[in-house]
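Onboarding guide, step 5: your first structure request.
Type a short instruction followed by the sequence, for example:

Predict the 3D structure of this protein.
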Amino acid sequence: MLETIKQKIQQLIAAYEAERAERERLLTALIQAEEQNETYRKQITELERQIDNLKLAEALKADGNGSEEAKKKINSLMKEIDRCITLMEG
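The system replies with structure tokens like these:
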């Protein structure tokens, strides 16, 4: 009977160690995924900025079709600049 209890305890210890190792592996994978997610977020932000710049450049072309769009974009940029200035003052 005592030998059976020892075997059960050894099995429990082995199972605990296996679960602990799996937990560590999963935590490492989670950290890597979060870092990759942050990298992708930064990349998306940069691509969105590039898209906005391309839209503005297209709107500013001298073909006359984008002049209204250019005015809207410039007004939007000015509002954003004013908002940033207000935040910096406060």
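Each response can be followed by summary notes, for example: The radius of gyration is 29 Å.
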